[in-house]
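User: Let's play a game. I give you a shape written as tokens, and you guess the letters that built it. Ready? Here's round one.
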């Protein structure tokens, strides 16, 4: 019944049904039931007009006393209503002739909005609704918390504004809500005190209170998360079904020689990470692990250890990084530490064609054992003889497809993805729920936390003075700006402008510019000279955000810091504080900035804990900010809010995973489970269609 087309709902018909499909993805009655409000207006109590003061946001109702086009150039429509305690004018601009016909004197109407006082009480462009006096109490449009729905111009002109949706959805609920079953086992509903699905669907549209609306949302979120976790559990099981052909045994001697050759002693967390990786790599099924560690926690050495393990049993290793700068940095680190023990190649897009051909050949015949590079690694021409391990650095910079393409170049290769953005637990459990996760919390012992200060632009010259002091001590400095060039659209200082002015301010020092539009050769040249200390001050855009490691750089100045997100600022700041010296970060902002931006900067100045910052960012800006924009999919869950539903995520995960465990006792094959998953009564009514499309 619920999968019947909306075309058969009274008053919809084929034309409007098609519009609902193309504009809002609504095809069935079920889809309408799940078309949840984007927000609500509290119209549960009316305010007498006589008591409304300017600035109040209120709902009033009254009888239309007068409708007329007014204004010096007759530019607006004025609708005066009267509720016996006073009069109020609704003012409308645009489409006024159409509107004029819609309002007729004597009718009863509701206005919601903000009250102004200009000669008389008025509201400009109030939300309005017509009601008849009798239904004033039982109305779906007023006298209660009223749902507002997403709509489009086309939908509105076909009658599907919020009022139209309200009417249609109310009718559908009245007729069909009895057909909504309870998909979850009773014990789960009870255990987590969830409303029934039927109640939840009813009350998410027409809640008695805001609390009731939230309870309903959480119920729908539970369904969604439960299904997602089910899928993740099965997916993980599937990975373990694949038996990987191993080249041989990991050579413990090689690991010992690698550790002995390191210029420092690995931290406890680094050792633990290496141990977990070794264990995974000895498993009969492929490793699927994520290494999370705050900026500067030392993930590269762990990656190197993994590469040594794979190489020691004759497998090839691919290390993919998002930028050429980072790839070549890794190449230098790997070669300087691993030396002659394994042949290493660097493959990036900017190499000459003939050089690339040479490297392709070495990869193909196995002469290249560790291949480090950018997206160039996933080009069609690259074929490995025996790719056993894939390492992806700054993984959030890559899309799901890019990772998959690299994986296809091996026979069930082990996978290690690394990320410097600490990921809040709610995200780890959903977005990365089928990965094993290692977290490096400990920073190398010699580190001092970066001292962070906030300055208004008017004190920039003071900042310059401090910079001068550090440069004189042979320290190196980053200046970061949001734009490469000045633009007419936004009034921001650019990297080029800062570069010019810094050259004048520090004529005795070497100042260089680095940005994304420079050729790779020029970038490498500047970066190389900054690394070996020839450049004192590097002016840059966020191209230095990921991975760059220059321990002698101890000062960072971020101008227009208010333009960056929290996680991004934290990543930027992670470029300093990489050696034993005390490092500093100055966040400079225009003198006048919104409170919210100021708060963000204060948060950053008060903590160096990437996890705390990521949690905060998740609350402020949503999951997309943390995972990078390319991974929308999962983070677009329909009902769940990763910022506040951690308890639900944990519960749904526990229940779903233990259900899959139970299924394991009766089903051999993952594919059988998957079929069973789709048939389970538990999942009836859960929006599996949508989640499956997200997952695929
Ligand atoms: P990230 O986790 O941000 O990728 P890196 O791997 O680039 O960090 O390491 C940051 C810096 O810390 C490098 O200069 C590296 O040589 C150094 N480092 C890593 N581990 C240790 C350690 N255990 N002791 C001292 N320095 C270390
Ligand atoms: Mg790194």
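Assistant: Ready! My guess for every position:
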């Amino acid at each position: 019944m619920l999968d019947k087309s909306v075309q058969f709902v009274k008053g919809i018909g084929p034309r409007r049904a098609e519009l609902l499909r193309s504009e809002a993805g609504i095809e069935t009655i079920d889809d309408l039931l799940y078309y949840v409000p984007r927000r609500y207006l509290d119209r549960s109590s009316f305010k007498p007009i006589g008591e409304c003061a300017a600035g109040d946001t209120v709902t009033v109702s009254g009888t239309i006393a007068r409708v007329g086009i007014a204004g010096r150039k007759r530019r607006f429509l004025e609708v005066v209503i009267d509720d016996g305690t006073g009069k109020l004018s609704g003012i409308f601009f645009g489409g006024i002739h159409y509107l004029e016909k819609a309002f007729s004197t004597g009718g009863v109407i509701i206005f919601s909005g903000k009250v102004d006082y200009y000669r008389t009480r008025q509201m400009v462009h109030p939300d309005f609704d017509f009601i008849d006096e009798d239904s004033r109490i039982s109305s779906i449009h007023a006298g209660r918390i009223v749902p507002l729905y997403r709509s489009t111009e086309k939908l509105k002109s076909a009658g599907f504004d919020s009022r139209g949706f309200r009417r249609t959805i109310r009718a559908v609920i009245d007729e069909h809500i009895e057909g909504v079953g309870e998909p979850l086992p009773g014990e789960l509903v009870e255990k987590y005190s969830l409303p029934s699905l039927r109640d939840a669907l009813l009350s998410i549209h027409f809640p008695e209170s805001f609390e009731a609306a939230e309870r309903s949302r959480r119920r729908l979120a539970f369904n969604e998360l439960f299904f997602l976790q089910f899928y993740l559990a099965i997916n993980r099981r599937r990975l373990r079904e694949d038996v990987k052909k191993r080249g041989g045994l990991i050579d413990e001697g090689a690991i010992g020689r690698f550790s002995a050759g390191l210029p420092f002693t690995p931290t406890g967390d680094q050792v633990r990470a290496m141990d977990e990786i070794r264990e995974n790599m000895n498993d009969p099924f492929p490793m699927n692990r994520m290494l999370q560690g705050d900026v500067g926690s030392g993930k590269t050495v762990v990656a190197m250890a993994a590469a040594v393990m794979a190489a020691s049993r004759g497998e090839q290793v691919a290390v993919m990084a998002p930028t050429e700068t980072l790839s070549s940095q890794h190449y230098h680190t790997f070669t300087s530490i691993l030396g002659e023990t394994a042949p290493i190649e660097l493959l990036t897009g900017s190499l000459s064609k003939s050089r690339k051909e040479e490297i392709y050949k070495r990869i193909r015949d196995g002469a290249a054992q560790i291949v480090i590079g950018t997206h160039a690694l996933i080009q069609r021409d690259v074929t490995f003889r025996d790719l056993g391990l894939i390492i992806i650095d700054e993984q959030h910079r890559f899309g799901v497809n890019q990772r998959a393409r690299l994986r296809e170049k091996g026979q069930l290769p082990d996978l290690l993805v690394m990320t410097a953005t600490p990921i809040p637990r709610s995200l780890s459990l959903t977005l990365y729920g089928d990965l094993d996760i290692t977290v490096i919390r400990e920073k190398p012992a010699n580190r001092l936390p970066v001292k962070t200060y906030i300055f208004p632009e008017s004190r920039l010259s003071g900042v310059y003075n401090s910079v001068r002091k550090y440069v004189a001590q042979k320290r190196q400095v980053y200046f970061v700006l949001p734009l490469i060039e000045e633009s007419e659209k936004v009034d921001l200082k650019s990297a080029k402008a800062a570069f010019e002015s810094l050259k004048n301010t520090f004529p005795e020092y070497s100042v260089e510019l680095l940005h994304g539009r420079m050729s790779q050769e020029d970038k490498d040249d500047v970066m190389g000279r900054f690394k070996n200390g020839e450049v004192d001050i590097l002016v840059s855009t966020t191209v230095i955000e990921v991975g760059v490691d220059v321990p002698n750089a101890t000062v960072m100045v971020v101008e227009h810091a208010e333009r960056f997100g929290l996680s991004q600022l934290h990543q930027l700041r992670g470029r300093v504080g990489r050696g034993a010296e005390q490092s500093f970060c100055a966040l400079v902002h225009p003198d006048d900035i919104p409170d919210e931006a100021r708060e963000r900067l204060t948060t950053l100045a008060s903590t160096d804990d990437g996890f705390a910052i990521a949690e905060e960012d998740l609350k402020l800006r949503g999951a997309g900010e943390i995972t990078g924009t390319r991974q929308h999919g999962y983070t677009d869950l329909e009902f769940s809010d990763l910022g506040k539903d951690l308890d639900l995520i944990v519960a749904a995960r526990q229940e779903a995973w233990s259900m899959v465990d139970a299924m394991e006792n009766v089903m051999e094959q993952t594919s059988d489970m998957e079929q069973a998953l789709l048939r389970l009564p538990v999942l009836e009514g859960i929006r599996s269609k949508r989640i499956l499309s997200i997952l695929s």
